């Protein structure tokens, strides 16, 4: 082995720095406990059920039927609209999100933390609620342009947050050299700094693409037919399982391509902090001109929709027509399924997170990847797949709360895995070893030492799942039991028939319920903000 190869091997073996300069807990190549592996396999198998059964259902239709379905003119239109919207939204979010991140990290603005929080606000508002807020004011909105603008507004933070974090850790030395060679500020940034933050920008942009491909509520409200709209139509109109399953599988293929690119980009994110560029002061006139760049997405995606909601909510006829028992029933259903989904997702994510935090290997990576499948499965696909699965395998559970909660757990388990893995990985293994010297079993030592120290990250993961469950719409529409409606479905049912006044109370309570844990998480960690 050459000296260069030996040095490279030592560098790979050296523990990478963790948060605040601490060394991250190293993973090990020792064999994991059998009980932990078994629990992780059960959780991964549960996460794989929707995709596996969807593939089986689509395969039963035969290759000829699949080709015939995919070559229909209407299906091609759905696919083209989905790809066009995803590409346009991703490009716009990349440009605007990067610009916002540069303003917030490279320019001295008053109250920078407040502006960062404002830039992240669209993450807490469901896209279909943003569409509702605009339709209240302009009922004639429809088509590609408003769908593109609103989707861009609510997804910009997916680019802003990781790019801002990357800019803070990007070295400014090369940019200073470029400026000394006569380059302007913009040219120096693209030559020296952009290559350092490009992986973060790509990762955020691919999340935007995934969000756009899986979007259902907003595009349906604005009557822009995409693949998600086509899947729902095929299921609702004639219960055409073959066409619905084929369209769902096509959407999954597109989403998996995006997820593969996103995970590859995340692996290239910078790991170490460097000497960053300090924010520089600018003239008051330029600052006044730049701050609207930061505010445009929160205004379009949050302020205008909430203003439309508030104006409709305070109208006399709206207050007079509120069905209080039905409203309270929707609140109870929303909170009930959110808590149940958070508990189930946490239980399923815990063994996968513990395995990935402590052990390394292809087998461990495969289990973790399966656990993240929900990240690539649009809600409408999971809902449709579990409709088929419950009818064929467990018909007694069809249209039951258990299947609905399971769908939420599969969809949002990745949010819990990510935060819990980070928390478990920060617990030094030597503490568990010290506990073992007192004569307790490995499980007891883990329970006494690791669980208390990792409990905050478990709580964050559970809150993330609960928030996402409150806002979820397409899977809920397909799987909710008869007679049970959440705030999201009540809002949807009234908006699609243009009963904006009747929808206002449900929208207002949905915002309030989701805002409380979202505000808590906004100050917890960057991870929580990114996952919102």
UniProtKB/TrEMBL annotation:
Cellular component annotations (GO), alphabetically ordered: plasma membrane
Record keyword Transmembrane present: yes
Membrane topology: Multi-pass membrane protein
Key words, A-Z: Cell inner membrane, Cell membrane, Membrane, Transmembrane, Transmembrane helix, Transport
Family to which the UniProt record says this protein belongs: Belongs to the binding-protein-dependent transport system permease family.
CDD domains: TM_PBP2
Domain ABC transmembrane type-1: 79-260, 331-521
Compartment list: Cell inner membrane; Cell membrane
Signal peptide per UniProt: none
Name of the protein described by the UniProt record: Iron(III) transport system permease protein
Region of interest (Disordered), residue spans: 1-27
Organism field: Microcella putealis
Any single biological process term in GO: transmembrane transport
Pfam assignment, any one: BPD_transp_1
Taxonomic path: Bacteria, Bacillati, Actinomycetota, Actinomycetes, Micrococcales
TM region positions: 34-56, 83-104, 116-135, 147-167, 200-224, 244-265, 286-307, 327-357, 369-390, 396-413, 445-470, 503-524
InterPro entries in the record: MetI-like, MetI-like_sf
């Amino acid at each position: 082995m050459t000296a260069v190869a030996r040095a490279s091997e030592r560098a790979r073996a050296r523990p990478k720095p963790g948060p605040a300069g601490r060394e991250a807990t190293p993973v090990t190549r020792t064999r994991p406990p059998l009980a932990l592996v078994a629990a992780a396999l059960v959780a991964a198998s549960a996460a794989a059920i929707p995709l596996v059964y969807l593939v089986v259902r689509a395969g039963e239709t035969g290759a000829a039927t699949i080709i015939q379905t995919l070559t229909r003119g209407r299906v091609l239109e759905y696919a083209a609209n989905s790809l066009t919207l995803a590409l346009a939204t991703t490009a716009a979010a990349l440009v605007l999100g990067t610009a916002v991140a540069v303003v917030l990290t490279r320019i001295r603005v008053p109250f920078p933390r407040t502006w960062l929080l404002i830039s992240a606000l669209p993450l807490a508002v469901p896209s279909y609620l943003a569409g509702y807020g605009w339709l209240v004011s302009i009922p004639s909105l429809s088509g590609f342009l408003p769908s593109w603008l609103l989707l861009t507004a609510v997804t910009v933070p997916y680019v802003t947050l990781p790019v801002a974090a990357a800019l803070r850790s990007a070295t400014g030395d090369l940019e200073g050299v470029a400026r000394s060679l006569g380059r302007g500020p913009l040219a120096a940034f693209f030559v020296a700094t952009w290559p350092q933050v490009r992986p973060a920008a790509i990762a955020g942009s691919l999340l935007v693409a995934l969000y756009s491909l899986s979007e259902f509520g907003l595009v349906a409200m604005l009557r822009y037919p995409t693949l998600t709209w086509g899947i729902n139509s095929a299921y609702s109109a004639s219960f055409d399982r073959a066409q619905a399953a084929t369209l769902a599988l096509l959407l999954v293929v597109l989403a998996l391509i995006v997820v593969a690119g996103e995970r590859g980009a995340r692996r290239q994110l910078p790991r170490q902090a460097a000497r960053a560029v300090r924010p520089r002061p600018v003239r008051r006139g330029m600052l006044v001109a730049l701050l609207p760049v930061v505010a445009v997405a929160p205004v379009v995606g949050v302020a205008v929709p909430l203003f439309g909601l508030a104006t409709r909510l305070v109208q006399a006829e709206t207050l007079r027509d509120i069905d209080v028992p039905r409203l309270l029933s929707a609140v109870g259903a929303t909170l009930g399924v959110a808590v149940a989904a958070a508990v189930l997702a946490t239980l399923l994510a815990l063994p996968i997170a513990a395995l990935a935090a402590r052990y390394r290997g292809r087998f461990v990576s495969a289990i973790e990847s399966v656990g993240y499948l929900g990240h690539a499965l649009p809600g409408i696909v999971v809902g449709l797949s579990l409709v088929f699965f419950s009818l064929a395998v467990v018909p007694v559970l069809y249209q039951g709360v258990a299947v609905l909660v399971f769908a939420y757990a599969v969809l949002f388990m990745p949010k819990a895995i990510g935060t819990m893995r980070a928390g478990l990985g920060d617990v030094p293994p030597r503490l568990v070893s010290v506990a073992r010297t007192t004569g307790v079993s490995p499980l007891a030592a883990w329970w006494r030492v690791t669980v208390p120290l990792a409990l905050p990250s478990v709580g964050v993961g559970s809150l993330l799942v609960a928030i996402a469950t409150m806002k979820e719409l397409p899977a809920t529409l397909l799987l909710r039991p008869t007679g049970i409606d959440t705030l999201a479905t009540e809002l949807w049912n009234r908006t699609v028939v243009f009963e904006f006044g009747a929808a206002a109370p449900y929208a207002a309570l949905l915002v309030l319920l989701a805002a409380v844990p979202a505000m808590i998480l906004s100050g917890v960690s960057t991870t929580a903000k990114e996952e919102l």
